[in-house]
Each structure stands twice: as structure tokens, then as C-alpha cells.
Amino acid sequence: MCAKKASPLHPHDKARRLLFDHPELIEDLLRRHVAAPWVEELDLSTLERVTEISLSEDLKERRADAIWKVRWKNRSSSRSAPPEVYLLILLEFQSTPTRYMVLRLLDYTLRIWEALIRRKDWLPGRRLPPVFPVVLYNGRRPWRGPWSLDELIAPVPEGLAEYQPQARCFPLDERDLPIDLEGGRDLVAALAALDRGETSEELERIIERLLTWLELEEQKPLRRAFAGWIQSVLSTARPESEPEIRNVDDLLELKSMLHETVKEWPKQWLARGREEGREIGRREGRQEGRQMGRREGERELLAQLLTQKFGDLDEATRERLDRADLDTLQRWARHLLDASTLDEVWGETER
Q: Mean pLDDT, to the nearest integer, of 163-188?
């Protein structure tokens, strides 16, 4: 059965995510907004987008948006040191509050580790690299969901808590980001400022700062990415009575165009564009919730059928069921009809 295709991203939502394909955004996110002592131990010049890890189709459909790796400073000076001593940074973009976000990020983390184990890409002592999960939220409503897994687990008697899994994700709510465009480079704050802007004058000022920060020739792709995102928002927000936004591929040309053609920009333009994008995000969130509900129901039913046929399930089997996506669960259910062992349920490729 083919995996169900996710709803297409809104154009300016997609353009926003493409900005985080550039290491400068990740560097500023860590240095300026995470700002924890351990960030100073990172060699941010080694930031590299992870593309070689093969994840399941279900995970791709649910869009774990970006995975980066970065080396630690002064930890691989010896020739005998492992080729990769790094931290994995997992980014998830969200425009609607989701109660079980931390559970989703834990699922992503486990799948990433499983992919590394399959590749035998581990650290000395067969240890796995740490993962730092970040949620970038730009929704209209305040986020009220938990950021820690223990907030989702019912209270337990003394002595049982230590056996419960622990997980947290780092929330970055764009609405609460401090914005100081007069200080050092902060591309994440500039993105938030662009999203809050309501007049062409404000946008021109922000674009001017971006041009100052991104003046090097090798930063031209990032300037183009910012220009693409701004134009996607403008095109969405433009009233039909106004002329179309001329397509440009660089921030400097975009700044000139704004100055010439959008001098009297009504405040509701950008607000309307943002709201349209968030409404699409809310619809996608509801669809994803229904998909997760189907998965849970399929998992419970399959667990009952397996128990009836093979007896009580061990912990490894239950963990396998917990991690499986909907298509995998349905495939196993079909195998169950003719299987005489659990291995036959899993199929040849998973023995």
C-alpha cells in the first residue's frame, strides 16, 4: 500500500523552511536563542545538514523538518579518534499547538538512532550521539502543550518514576523572540521581525539589516532564500485590486521594488497572508491527528491478534509495534493471516 501523501505546504511556509537549509540560520539559532553554556563547546563552523540517514516513509510524510550535525570542539584531535563526534540537531516547524509534540520528537529521535545503528555509525563504546530537538513555533495561538514527556505520563508510585522514559524538546516561540536588529547578526530574529512586520517601511529596514549581515558573495544563496520567502508572503497577501508582485531573486532588488511599488501598504496585507498560512497548518494538524488515531487503533488490534495467536508478547515485540507506522502495521496484519511465527509476521526484510 502506498503511503498517504501529506498535504502540500503553503508556499511561504515551504519557503520559510528552506531558509533553515542554510547553516547561518542554525548557528544564530544556537548562539543567540538557545544560548546555553554547552553551545560554546560546539564548533559551529562544522555545521552540516544530515542527508545520508534513511528514515521511514512515514517519518518523511510527517516532516521531521531538518536534521543537522555539528562537531564538538577539541574532542577529535587524535588520529585514532572516531570520524564523527557530534551532536544531532533536530528541527520541527509548527504553526498549530500540539499536545503530544514531545512524543513526536521522541519518535523522531528513536528513528534517527535506529538508522545510525543500522549503518553501524555510532560513537566509541557503541554509544549514540546526543540529539537536541527544537520546535520552532510561529502560530497565532499561545502554545499551552507540555514540552516534557513526564507531563504526559500519569503520576506513578514511588520507585516507579525512574523507569519512565525522559524526554524534553526546546521550544522557540517566534512571537516571544527578543528582536534586536541593531546588535550582531541574528537571522532568526530577522525572520521573526519580517513575520511581524505590517508596513513596507518596516520590511525595508529589516531587509537593510539582512543586506548588511549577508554581504559576502558566498551568502548569495541565503539572500535569495530570504527574498523568496518575503515574496511568497507578499504574493499571498496581495489584494486582487493591486498589481502582481514582480518576481526578483535577491534582497537588494526586492528592497528597491518595495520602495517603488508598495509605498502605501495597508497593514492587513501581511496579516492576511500569515493567517492563510496558519489556517492551512491547522487543517494539516487535524488531518495528522486523525492519522495518528488510526495508527493507535491498528496497533492495539494487531497486538490483540498477535497475543491470541502466539501468546503474551515480550517487551521487544511491543516496542516494535509502538514504533511502526500505519502502513507497516497494516502490512504485518496481512502477513498474520498465513504466519506461523512472529518472524513471518515481520516479513523477510525484517528478520
A: 88
The yes-or-no verdict on residue 337 having pLDDT over 50 is yes
Give the strands of the sheet with 170-173, arranged side by side.
48-49, 66-71, 86-94, 131-137, 170-173
Supply the pLDDT for residue 97: 83
Task: For strands 131-137 and 170-173, give the pairing.
Answer: parallel
User: Which pLDDT score, from 0 to 100, does residue 184 have?
Assistant: 87
136 in the same domain as 26: yes
Q: How many domains does the chain have?
A: 2
Within-domain flag for 101: yes
Q: Are 230 and 245 in contact (CB under 8 A)?
A: no
The mean pLDDT value for 235-263 works out to 67
Chain mean pLDDT for the chain? 77
Residue identified by cell 488531518 is: 287
Residue that terminates a domain, selected from 173, 208, 242: 173
Rounded to 5 degrees, φ, ψ at 70 are -145, 140
- Give dist(CA 206, CA 230) in Å, integer: 11
**Higher-scoring residue by pLDDT: 18, 286:** 18
Domain that holds residue 88: 11-74+83-146+164-173
Nearest to 70 by CA among 91, 92, 93: 91
In DSSP terms, 48 is beta-bridged to: 69
C-alpha cell at 66: 531538518
Alpha-carbon distance 226 to 235, whole Å? 14
Residues 168 and 29 in one domain: yes
Q: Compute the distance between CA of residue 177 and CA of residue 75 in angstroms, rounded to an integer.
A: 32
Lowest mean pLDDT among 39-43, 129-133, 202-206, 245-249: 245-249
pLDDT, position 260: 65
Domain match, 287 and 168 both: no
Does 37 share its domain with 169? yes
279 and 142 assigned to the same domain: no
In a domain? residue 277: yes
Domain membership flag for residue 245: no
- Residue 318 placed within a domain: yes
* Whole-number Å distance between alpha carbons of 199 and 204: 9
Contact assessment for residue 6 and residue 209, using Cβ atoms and an 8 Å cutoff: no
More confident residue, 189 or 336: 189
Place of cell 495528522: 288
